[in-house]
Structures are given as C-alpha cells and as structure tokens.
Amino acid sequence: MRPIGARSAGVVGRGQARSRPHAGMISIGNVVSVSDGARYFQEAVAESPADYYAARGEAAGVWRGQAAAELGLNGPVRREDFVRILDGRHPTTGDELGRHYAARKNVAFDVTFSLPKSVSLLYALGDDHMRAIVLLALDAGATAAHEYLEEHAAWGRIANPQNRAIEHVRAQLVTATFVHRTARPVTRDGVITVDPQLHTHLVVASFAKRANGTWGQLHGQQLYAHAAAAGAIGQATTRDVLVRELGLRVRTNPNGTFELEGFTPEQLAEFSQRHQQARAAAGAAGVTSYDGMKVAVLASRESKSAVAPGTDHFEQWRDRAATLGLTPRSVRDLLDQEQLRDLRWFDVDTAQAVIGRDEGGLTAQTSVFSRRDLIRSLAAHTPLGMRREQIEELADAILADPAVTTPMVPAQREGESPGEAMDRWRDRGMELHYSTPEVVELERRMLRSAVLRDQERTLVIDGGHVRTAVAAIGSQLTKDQRDMVLGVCTSTAGVVVVEGAAGTGKTTAVRLIRNIHADLGVSVVGCAPSNRAAVTLGEEAGVTAVTTASLLGRLRDGQHLARGGLVIADECSMLGPDLAELVIRAEQDGAKLVLIGDSAQLQPIHGGALFRSLGDALGRISLTDVVRQRESWDREVLMALRAGDAAPLVRRYLDEGRVHHCPDEASRVATIAADWVAATTEGHEVITIARERAAVAELNAVTREAAVDAGLVGRTGVHRVSTDQVGHKTMPLGELEFAVGDRVLLVGRTQRHRGLVKGLRGTVVETAADGTLCLETAEKRRLTVPPRYAGVAHGYALTAHRAQGATADIVLVHGSDAADRHWHYVALSRHRLRAAYYDVASQPRDTEGVHHGPPVDASWTDQALIASMERDDAKPSTLDYPAAYDRQLVETCPSTDPTAGRGVAPTERQLELLRLNGLLEELPPAATWIHASLVVDRLFGNPAGESAQRWLTKGGTPPDEAGRAVAMAMQDVAASRGRSCIRDSRSGVMDGQLRARPGSAEKELAMQAEEARRRRRLEHNLHHDHHAPAHTTQSPGRGIG
C-alpha cells in the first residue's frame, strides 16, 4: 500500500475512504448564433447599481484567457468587442481570425460553472461580508476551472503544409466571463418565483491562438472531455476559499460536489424550484442522459422578462426563508464552525484507495483510467477543498510512480523509448491511459496462462467420433453450431473462446458438447454470471452449473476442478476480473475451459472486457447464423447493429412502423402498456425492456393496471412486502399486489431447493390468503413462492441486464438516449416475431442561441436515434493496448478547404495507423484520405465508407455527392487489390446514400487484418509480461462436478 504524499505545506493524507462516483458542476453548451449569443449574455448586465443590488441585473463580463490579452482584451467586456470575437474577427481591426467550415456554425462554447444551492442561499441571506466572500469563492472556482481547461483542453487544428493533413497543436483561449446570480423564473401557482443560483458563464470563443502564432478553430471535443475534471477542480477550489475565509463546515457528496452544513433538505428544496421544474421536464421528455437533461433544462425555462420591474430579489428571498426558520442570525451562526481552516487533507490514506479495485476506486469498474479521471477522483477526496496546483501536483506524482500506476505505452517507433513514445502521444493532443500494477499483472497472467495452453491437449476428442455424434442429430443444427461442436471437442487448446451473436443457438450446441463428453465419462461443469443463466445451462443444456462467483468461492476455499474435466462458462462477456481468475484456476487444476459469450452485448460491470481481449489474442469460434428471429431482414439489420451500423435497422423499423415517437413520457408508457395488452390478448409472450429501474417500475405499474382493466389479471389479489436483491444490497420495493394472471419476476436470493431462482419469470395461477403464490413458467413448470420469500416483483418490464438471455415472441423497448450500442443490441434481439421501439419526440431547440444537445445532421432521417444506437461504450482491458489507441489516431477529416477536401492526401494519423498494421500497400496510387478511411474501416470491421461519408457531409458536401465520392474511392481500392468490394444496389445503397456491406472479399481481408492485429497484440503482451502464472500441482481426481 502506497500512502498519498503530502507534497505541499498544509496538505496531509487522512481518514476513511468512501465510494465516490465523480461529477463536477459544470456544463457546456454550443453558442451557434453571433447575434443571439451576444444578446443573451449582454442583456443580463444591470443598467444601474440599483438593479445590481436588487439582483435584477448582473455586473459586466470580464475577459479571461491568454489569447485575450494578445488581442488587447482586458477588463470589462464591451458588446462590440464581444460580437466581433463571436464572429471570428479581431476586436480592433475587424480582420478575420479564421473561417467556419462545418455545416453547423459554432461561434463559442458556453462553459457554465455552478455553485451548490446552499452556497447560493448563503449569498442570498448573508450580510455584505458573506456575499463578498461567496463571490470571491465563485471567482476562484471558475478561475481554477478555466485555467485547467486552458492548460489541458485548449487545442487548435492546423493543416500540415506538406500533405494538408489536419493536426492538433496547443492553443490559447479568448474567454468572456459573465457572473449570474439567479436561476430562471418559475411560475408556481400563478406566482413567478426566482431562486438564488450563483453560476459563471465562461464563454470560450471558437477561435483560438495556435502555437505557431496563427489563429484557427478550437477543437471543442477536448473541452467536453475535460469538463468533469475542470468542474471537480472548481468545486474543490470553492470549498477551499469558503472554509479558509468563513470557517464554514461542508458536507461532501459521493459524487464530489458539496453542500454547506446548517441547511435542511426542506430549505434547499424550497429554493430549488427551477431544478425541480427542469427535472419534471426531463421526466416528461423521457430523457435520462446528461445531454438529454441539458436539453430539457433549456426547453423548460421561462423568459426573464416575466419578472416584474422593480422586484427586489433579496427581499423576497428573506421573506421566503423566514417561513422556513432561516433568519439572519441562524445564517451568521454557520460561520466559524470549522476549526481546521488552514489544514488540507485527503479522506483516504493511500493512492490505492483512489485508483484501486475496491469500491470507489478508479479500476473498480474499468481496467484503465486517464489523468483527468484521476484529477476528478482526487478533487472529490478533498473534504475541505484544495487548490488546483496541489491536486494536479499529486496526480502527476501518482502517475509517475511505477509502484502505483502503469502507463499504457503507445506503439513505439524504431529506436524510441517508452517515455519518448508517451511524450510524442501527448504532444499531439492524444490522451494516455493508465492502470495499476495489480490489474496489469492479473490480466497479463490470464493471457499468458491461456496462451501457454494453446497446444496442451488437455482434453481432445477424436474428430470422427464427434462427426458421428453431430450426424446423429441430422439437420437440427446449423453449420455454425456444427462447427462449434467440432471446434470445441477437437481443440488442442486448454482455453477455447466461442463468440456467438444473440439467437445463434449457442445453448443447443452446448447440449451436444456436454453429451459427447459425458458419454466418454468426462466431468462437465458449468458457470454463468447470474443464477438464471446458470439454471438455463442446466435445464436447456444438461450442464450442472452454478454462478461464476459461487464456483470461484469454492475454489478459493480449497476445492478443485476435475483434472482433465471440462468447464463451460457462459455469458463471459459480462465478466471482468472473475474471468481472469477462472482462466488461471482452470490451468492450475488442469481442466479444459470453454468460454462462451458475445462481446457485442452488455459489458462487464467490474473491470475491462477481458472476454473480447482473449478472443482477439487466442482467436475464436464464431457463430453468426441467427435462428431466433423469424424474418430474414430482421436478422440482417440486427447483425448490422451488432457490427456498429444502426442505420439499416432504424430505417427498416421506420418503414415497418416499429418506431413509435410519443409526445411525452406519460403517453409513451401508456402506449407500451396498451401494446403489451393487445399482443398478450392475441396469445403472444411479451416482455418490455427499459434501461432505468425507475422506468421499469413505472412500466410495471401502468402495464399491470391496463392488464387488470383488460381482464388479463384478477382485480383482487394478495399483498406482499417485496424487496429487490441488487448485488449485495437489498432494496425495498414496498407493498405490491399479486393476483391471478400477474406476470412476476423473482428478484431475491436463489433457493434452488425450492426452485426459486433469481431472474425467473412466471405467471400467477393461484394465490392463498397468507400470501403464497403459485407460479407457472413459460415451460409449464409450476412452483410455489412462500410468504416469507420477499424477492417477488412484477415482471411486465425488465432491465436489459435481466433480459439478456431471455426470449419472447414480442419485445417492447422503452428507448433511452443514455443507452449505447450494446444495450440496444441486447434489447432489440430478444424477440422471435417482432420488436418495437418507443421514444419521445425531440425537444425544441433553445431560441436564444445556446444549444446543449449534440449536433445532428437534419438531412439524415432519425439521425439522433442512429447516433444513440451506434455509440460504443466498450470497456478496454490493459491487454488491448497499444492497439486500443488506434482509434485516437483516426482523424479522417477533410482539409481546411472543404472544396478540396475530397482530394486531400491521407492524414498523418491514418498513415501511422495503416503503417502499424501493415496495410499501407492496400492504398491505391495517389491515395486520398477517403481511400485511407476505407482501409481503416475494414481494419476495425466498420461499415465501408461510414467515416468518410460522415466527414464529407459535415464539411458541407451534399449527401448524394458524398456517396458518389465514396463509391469511386471504393472502386479505386478494389482495383488496387484486383477484386471488387461493391455489392448490388439493394445492399449497397440505402435512401440514396451508399452504405456498402462487406462481401466475401471484404470478410477475407477483415479476417486477415484481424489476424495480423491479434498476432501483434499477443507478441506485445507476451513480450512485456514479466509475471509468469503460478503452477499448482494437483493430484488427479474428479474435483468439482
């Protein structure tokens, strides 16, 4: 264990680690109009001192940023200067600083730093001294956040004069700062209410001064990436000033924000009317993502002009506070409560508590982290606050200590040291990732264990015997299933990876594998992450199975796997560190291990996606022949979604009437409930899938009510107090009613002797007065749920985690803008007959020129839905590096002149990526960046031409011209290889836009590229692996199973 060093005076390490999901109170919007942006910020300025001191108006803005001084911008913000800066012109001469080329013009970024509500209340109710200190703390926090952003997130873009490729360079910012002290007005019971809410708008101009002295457009993506870290630093700095100057006591929250001690929840709620209004708007819109919440905030706000002239907000605030027991004296009593005004500390004793795998550590839910992640975590662990310099100094000390962290080194050039490679990476605006020595050792030990068993021949069955067994089944198996059975049984490897798409019949093949081994007297055991999946292995495949956690627990207690036996682990894509331990223990006990899963489905909750990493390194048996969905087109669009291309699915679902745009959340829930009743009445098995537990609860309640009204569920039943077992936590569900016909889901601890398995679904067929329920499962099996078993919930709607592995005739998907591709693929692949997707119509854009939603190309139908479904939140492991950095290399954008964008040479990043993967020879003579992007698409398995089309249209090229340009480039690449990759128009063109699907030649090349990447990754990890696995000699025996 390494202690956190006290590297600055007054900073010590101290006390009780706590779980802290990290978030800073900062948001970013896009200012897209010069006139509207200038009006929005300038009209808030007070016209007189009286307006300011009544909080009816604000002080003039102030300039910040190193580049602002270069332009002679100091002191107050004048409107004419502000307008010229937003317009990309020099404030004095009016000369252009640069030009906008994107289809959607973005003139500035509105970075808003907000204070906690209790601090705003202290300002509203305190005396002049308190108000002055609060404003000082706000200024200090906003300054620290801005300084952090300017140092780490300010990057410009410049064209290389030799190849005109776009490269990133350091930049300096021009920022206009506006302090606002009130929230938007809220009409409550016919009365207009304005709450105190101190926040600072840091309006960062979209043009910045680049390192070479020229001016150009800011690379805004970096601002978004570093926003949370900047917010956390600003919060810590604000706390530092408030504690030091006023002696206030603060209460830090698990998310890294804080509130002042002395205010009750009721008092904070009374002065949070705007927050409650925004949350209600978000709920009505059915949005849960961070971007969705920001859009809901804008969509629900009322005009400031609604406030009557002459209103004294301070007087109104004092009157409202008095009704809640807040008086000037009670506010003064908050001062001088904290005795340790000048001493600063972290509330953890060691760096491992911040970055380790224990609850709250950075590697608890992922294998790698970045410097900004560490900054956020450290800032959240400063209960009394701390200055930015101290936090960053400690972060750099932790990252530089090899006993604490291990950097993921980018691919090194010839003669380049690891340090030089990392410096080169940072200097180009790329982000380095880190892990801990413990995580790296575990994951590389797992890989080495699996690789060393490649030709172990632990359990190899004669191919003839296997083919005979397969032939006896006849046509019941698909070719993929037959290949899986033969591959697993005859493999000489000690670890076999099987990856199958949803609905490819993996469990059917497992049954035959189990039977072949059992007939030869081989011990076969199984495991899966959930009890329900383990029971499915037993019921449908005949494999004696337990949960993975239970199996590992037995092994840790001294039991062993049967030497020479077979272990079948299902749903492995959801396993993190447990998968690594399972691989190592299988080697130690001499058992053959078959890992089955689908890396396109839900990712591990803990750690990185090791299943995918193992498949990349070892190779995999793949199943892609889907048998679940009835319609062939349904299977095809789902496979496209699985590969990362959501457009075919969205467009076909729109054509088939399977996408339902509802006006608000209430109508969406009601529509889903009505459709559930209609489909169930027709005799279909139906499930509804939602992402958030709150949505599941609402869907269950409304759907059950509709089912009762339709006569599908009895009107009277029994009442039971229910609880939900979520991990190690028991969550109360309250008192629920269950009647005959109710759909139920078991959510308590598994009691196998009673047949009560967590995750099992059934229908109530009988009830007893004491609360006993008799359930019937889809397999017509009956079981009894006694009154003392509390883990019973309504089962009309499920989360995707509980639905993974389930199958129904019809699936109704409650869409979420916060869900990624993995979630959507799981939710939309559960059906046999039909799936339907329900969302809420898009929110209106803000009319005042500040947009918080992501930019959407309106020329593409339902592009927002496509973007949500294609977002990839895959979790890398340390084994994926340095290849995981490859995606940062890809910058397939046109030159600074869009009219010449199509003919620009490949970017430096594209060339480096292709060089590293041995694919430069794939480029035709006189190749452009479009040709290079096609080869890169093949390398990553993306739909051909996807990235090129996106960047061409973003640069202003009409979609049809972009499609033709990509088609020509595809022909060039195909000709250079002597083979065609152009499909017929039906599969290659959709809605007038080219979307080519890989043909057999494409698949062959993709397989070659994948094999090359696999070998390079394997060689790198083995070359850098200094931790040999422990070999434990076991005496022969049956062991577990």
From TrEMBL:
Gene3D superfamilies: 2.30.30.940, P-loop containing nucleotide triphosphate hydrolases
InterPro entries referenced in this protein's UniProt entry, alphabetically: Coronavir_polyprotein_1ab, P-loop_NTPase, TrwC
Keyword rRNA processing attached: no
Regions annotated as coiled coil: none
CDD domains from the UniProt entry: DEXSc_RecD-like (cd17933), SF1_C_RecD (cd18809)
PANTHER family: DNA HELICASE B (PTHR43788:SF6), DNA2/NAM7 HELICASE FAMILY MEMBER (PTHR43788)
Name used for this protein in its record: TrwC relaxase domain-containing protein
Species annotation: Candidatus Aeolococcus gillhamiae
Lineage of source species: Bacteria, Bacillati, Candidatus Dormiibacterota, Candidatus Dormibacteria, Candidatus Aeolococcales
